[in-house]
Input
Amino acid sequence: MSPAADAGALLRVEALEIAFRVRGGDVLATRGVSFEVRQGETLGLVGESGSGKSVLCRALLRLLPSPPAQIRGGRVLFDGVDLLALPEARMREIRGTDIAMVFQNPMTSLSPVWPIGDQVTEGLRIHRGLSKSAARDRGVELLRAIGIPDAARRYDDHPSQWSGGMLQRAVIAMAMACGPRLLLADEPTTALDVTIQEQILALLADLQAKNGMAMVLVSHDIGVVAETCDRIAVMYAGTLVETGPAAEVLGNPRHPYTLGLMRSSPRMDEHATRLQPIPGQPPDLARPAPGCPFVERCTFARDACRHESVRLREVAPGHASACLFPESVV
Amino acid sequence: MWIFRFVGLRLLQAIPVLLGITLVAFLAIHLVPGDPVRIMLQGRASDAAVAEINARLGLDQPLLVQYGRFVGRAVTGDLGTSIIQRAPVSKIVTERLIPSSFLLAYATLLSVLLAVPLAVWAAARRDRFADHVIRIAGTVSFAMPSFWIGLILILGFGLTLKWFPIAGFGQGFWGHVRHLFLPALTIALFLAPLLIQSLRAAMLDAMTAEHVEVARAKGLGERRILFKYVLRAALIPVVTILAVNIGWMVSGSVIVEAVFSVAGLGMLLVHAVSTRDYPVIQGLTLVFALMVIGVNLLADVACALIDRRTRNA
Output
């Protein structure tokens, strides 16, 4: 990866701020989110439900309906081009070709009324202008590559005929169809059985290695991220609270929320210790308070945490935390 | 082929439905006061004459025997003889069946041609100007009674502009098309708003489906998403609503038939009921039931073509 990595970031998100206009005011879904994804690397985006991970992913592809969503500020640079400034027609060409996305629920990701194969190859026909028969040949290849047995015959099946695991494979094949350089995977294994989860993660890692594409893997499960990611970004209440190389962040967490996530998730390779839930609830995003957003749930909180503003600061090379007292996190 | 099995099963299911409908209709008619023979003889007949004609027509037999005879003959296509018109019921009904089914199919076609584009437009422009205009116009058109809309159309397009004939069935296919345009439009102006409203709602619902977002993430254009993903998914509830309303229209088009003097089944039914012409009423009931079953069968086939998950139901 080194020459590519040296060439700089494939995706660079700068101070992205997304708000939702709802009755009674605005809800800030993300505040000042900045991160980057290098060519061929996997970034794990972790956080609990409602922390803004999915909104962030959709915002990168400009899929958020507006209204109510509103991008208040920041830039999304893909290959140096600000996606937020592109006209919609140009953006449509990027969706599915340069950047593709895999969604959480494979059972609802495909239209129930069209054959699976046609949906998998639709991008090829639209973006690459493939004929129906050429698209079919390529589609059968794609289905075979993601491990669908008897792909030529099953091309015309409808989604109701496939299991969740197979459908998620089809959705992944659909995302891979045009050879994207960046894959956004939004909780791709959450709706699946644990045994299938492993297969899907292995499939993603395999495809990534073969195609040299970068990936943003969104998950609420820090275990999933630990297995597959090069770097990790931990999200809480619409902000990134810790970023860094996966081994570094998980081995030496420098934000109490990261630590809390690790302690509240089970690990198979260790003797069972009692899981510790993170107490309390995330803050109300409609009424942001000054100070650290995690303060109410933090066991290390001090007075300063309530009013001093927090931002990501480097605690070690390439490892940043938004905690005011990163050394006290143990 | 799945379709043969599908249609065959539906037809088998239709047999008990038909028996039930005709039995209920048969019993209901005979509970209504009024004696057809006395109506036919216009009150001047002696009791002996009435009894003799009753015996000749089999009307003195127990009801279940009469019903049994009716069913036995009906399966051979013989629906009996009209008491009043003294002609075979099957012939009387067939003559009326053609204009009525033509009108029904025509009205359905016009409704769909009106409703689908307007509903798609309204859904795509949700809560914008076009959406409001379509909705208000639909409500107004739906709220106006058919006989009144019919009269307005006769006045406007028939008498003033002279674009369309105002009565009758016409000669040949294109004659029918011209003559039945205004009555079909009258029905469509009632039916289309129903379809627009349900299709618009179903489309708005379908737009929130996750696979629509997935399609957008694939880089598809809004137009393609609207027609290929949203409209298709939204059609099923609308086909069902359409089928129910056509079924209702089979006998409910009598007002429109009366306004435009179309000699259809509805007019025949009103006449038969008022003269207690049992065989005709009985035959019409059977024909209406068959038509309703046929319409529903078509709707089921349409649903099965749109979404194959409904094929096993």
Summary: The mean pLDDT of chain B is 87.
